[in-house]
């Protein structure tokens, strides 16, 4: 198995679960697989829409073992990561899990990872294509810190549905288990040694948990408004464009608003306190009668002149809602309402995907009070 910078090469990885009956890898020509981390695992097991339905009735196992998993250890690991990432990790207890962002100095999102703390390490998992560059960045920032960053041979497996009937002790190869706070169905992510994946899946199958492909996962995360970096973001994306990334009201999100300095914090603070992001990630309902579904990166346009107002992200067929997608759309186009277009497909914004609470914007309120005082 080839590696790049110590991280498994996503072009050569092949999950052992591709040997299960009906396992079908993603078709590179399928718009739903464009731009997402899908190489080396099953897109479906013969019944993609049926697998989505099964996920609403009981637990299913989804192989996401193509993702890269890094381990960060050392007595200064918590402070080290806290200084670099958007999540508050310096006081994280074992068992803590949340998302975290690495941003550039202008606040543009460079890496998006899930972080889990155990008694002796932090585990960061993210799309395979990004794992090598995140590892390189972390290693460059070590300097004299007592920290070690290393790749692992762990794979991510997601169980959607109630896991109460599953005996964790009977599952082989488990290194980390986390319950994820998100807007989708009950979700448990398990980091499993890749060499034990087949036995792990067999043990779950014995407990009545059947496999579902990455298409099922993709439909669930789109409905839950969870972006994937390669498909849903561009080099201008900032944290506030994804409303559920901002930690509020007990939801940790990916950005902690009350922590010490980190790269990109100035942009986060400015948007949080003074302004709003010029774009928002929204859920789009696509016209299924279009000759071809658009692919991630397609321009979203509005009005008779076809004015560009955004970019399309992940596109997938949902078993109930038909073709749906994530999109980054200018606020002006959202407030104006009306029909949007993504390639040849008409698109309608799901109103439930618009954020209800984007903070109090204390800085903006202070500016408004100052202006009012001057006028009086």
UniProtKB/TrEMBL annotation:
Q: Which SUPFAM superfamilies match?
A: Folate-binding domain (SSF103025)
| PANTHER family referenced in this protein's UniProt entry, alphabetically | TRANSFERASE CAF17, MITOCHONDRIAL-RELATED (PTHR22602:SF0)
Pfam families registered for this protein in UniProt: Beta-barrel_CAF17_C
What's the name of the protein? Aminomethyltransferase
Q: What's in the keyword line of the UniProt record?
A: Methyltransferase, Transferase, Transit peptide
User: Organism source for this protein?
Assistant: Corynebacterium frankenforstense DSM 45800
Asked if the record carries the keyword Transit peptide, the reply is: yes
Q: Where is the CAF17 C-terminal domain?
A: 283-352
> What domain of life does the native source organism fall in?
Bacteria
Region named Disordered: 1-33
Statement: the UniProt record of this protein carries the keyword Transport: no
Biased composition annotated in UniProt, kind: Low complexity? 21-33
Q: Which residues form a coiled coil?
A: none
Q: Name one GO molecular function term.
A: methyltransferase activity
One of the GO BP terms on file = methylation
Q: Which InterPro entries match?
A: CAF17_C, TrmE/GcvT-like, YgfZ/GCV_T_CS, YgfZ/GcvT
